[in-house]
Amino acid sequence: MSQESIHLYERVVAAINTREISDAVAEELFAPDLRIENVSTAVSEKTYHGAAGTREWLRDTFEGLGEGARYEIEEILADGEGFVVARVRLVGHGARSGAPVALRWVAVAWIHDGKMTRSAGYLRHREALEAVGLAE
User: Fold this and answer.
1) Total Cβ atoms within 10 A of residue 80
2) Could you read off the pLDDT of 44-90 as tens digits, one per residue?
3) For a FRET experiment, which of 30, 66, 77, 83 has its CA 20 to 30 Å from that of 8?
4) Close Cβ partners of 84 (under 8 Å, ≥ 6 residues apart)
5) Is the per-residue pLDDT at 104 higher than 50?
């Protein structure tokens, strides 16, 4: 199951980078009650819900960045039945300033029945592992 979880997470990242998530893609990848929780130092501290919330998260996250900005998986840190823990980053340039932007955090995606049900960002590797019941 963990390889399936990683594959789903990679598909979610690819969808994020299109910056447009259609209803069909949302239905395929996300549970209807999906919840996205940001780290306190993120672009937005809001919690987002469902497909509409995912689209809002995309707007909030990429709004001030140029067209080439990307959400990237740097490393899969842990995976298991129903979760993926990954070191991720948002890289690009400011839309107006052109200044380089690189935000890094550790993301946890919870997966059930082949769909992402929750995503949360953590500042520390240890916190993310604890969130899925793994001790370092």
Assistant:
1) 14
2) 678 999 999 999 999 988 998 998 999 999 999 999 989 999 999 99
3) 66
4) 2, 5, 6, 8, 9, 76, 78, 108, 109, 111
5) yes
- Joined together, the tokens standing for residue 105 give 């955090």
The strand pair at 100-112 and 115-122 is best described as: antiparallel
**Cα gap 76→106, rounded to integer Å:** 10
CB neighbour class for 2 (10 Å; exposed up to 12, middle 13-18, buried from 19): middle
Q: In terms of Cα–Cα distance, which of 120, 118, 48, 105 is closest to 72?
A: 105
Checking if the pLDDT of 1 tops 60, the result is no
Strand partners, 43: none
pLDDT band at 131 (very low <50, low <70, confident <90, very high): very high
Tokens of 12: 């979610």
For the chain, how far is it from start to end, CA to CA, in angstroms?
22
Q: Please work out, in degrees rounded to the nearest 5, the angle formed at the alpha carbon of residue 54 by the alpha carbons of 98 and 108.
A: 90
Residue type, 42: A
